[in-house]
Amino acid sequence: MARVFVYGTLKKGQPNYKHMINTAKGLAKFQGRGHTVEKYPLVIAGKYNIPYMLNIPGTGHHIAGEIYSVDEQMLQFLDEFEGCPDMYQRTLMRIQVVEWEGKGGEARAAADGVLECFVYSTATFPPEWVGLPYYDSYDSSGQHGLAYVLRESRE
User: Fold this and answer.
1) Virtual CA dihedral for 126, 132, 137, 142, nearest 10 degrees?
2) How far does Cα 118 stand from its chain's mean position?
3) Which residues face 84 on adjacent strands?
4) CA atoms of 96 and 99, how far apart (whole Å)
5) Helix (H, G, I), strand (E, B) or coil at 42
6) pTM of the complete model beyond 0.70
7) DSSP, residue by residue, 27-88
8) What is the dihedral of CA 109, 73, 40, 64, to 10 degrees?
9) Rounded to an integer, what distance in angstroms lies between the CA atom of residue 147 and that of residue 151?
């Protein structure tokens, strides 16, 4: 099992969460909540208002999200879903655990409550995205007013 940190539309209550609980795509078990140890820019960009964590460490905010334990089948699905490696790249990042529901003392065992998780961020973005507003968390119906467009509704 691998650990994945999700910060956008795959979180509970968000438009693509349905994929995280679809066992036909693999297994994903919610483990807890956390935020990136380093700061990153989280922007909402493109004509479909997609959340992107730009891989520019040290800029932006500590990004809040959810930690999941996933099997190989789900990890492969997520790679495909996230357009990896073209749109997003899956990299290991350090995540500060804020709340833990996982079994066993994994979070406590990690010195200082920091875990390494796979995160889908992007280093392949248009330069103008750096000038967009930065967020510390994503909610598709947040005050930003930028409605996320589901894949099935895209032209």
Assistant:
1) -120
2) 9
3) none
4) 9
5) strand
6) yes
7) -EEEEEEEEESS-B-EEEETTTTEEEEBS-TTSSBPPEEEEEEE-HHHHHHHHHHTTTTTT-
8) -60
9) 13
Active-site annotation holder among 66, 72, 82, 99: 82
- If you average pLDDT over every residue of the chain, what do you get? 92
Q: What is the mean pLDDT of residues 35-53?
A: 97
User: Is 82 among the residues known to form the active site?
Assistant: yes
User: 25 and 73 in contact (C-beta within 8 Å)?
Assistant: yes
Cis peptide before 85 (omega within 30 of 0): yes
Contact 63, 51 (CB under 8 A): no
Look at residue 74 and give its three-state secondary structure: helix
Which residue, among 66, 68, 57, 1, has the nearest Cα to 29 in the 3D structure?
68
Closest by Cα among 143, 10, 2 to 71: 2
Given the DSSP bridges, would you call strands 64-70 and 2-6 parallel, antiparallel or unpaired? antiparallel
- pLDDT surpassing 90 at residue 109: no
Please name the residues in contact with 98: beta carbons below 8 A apart, sequence gap of 6 or more.
32, 33, 34, 35, 64
**Alpha-carbon gap, residue 110 to 95, rounded angstroms:** 11
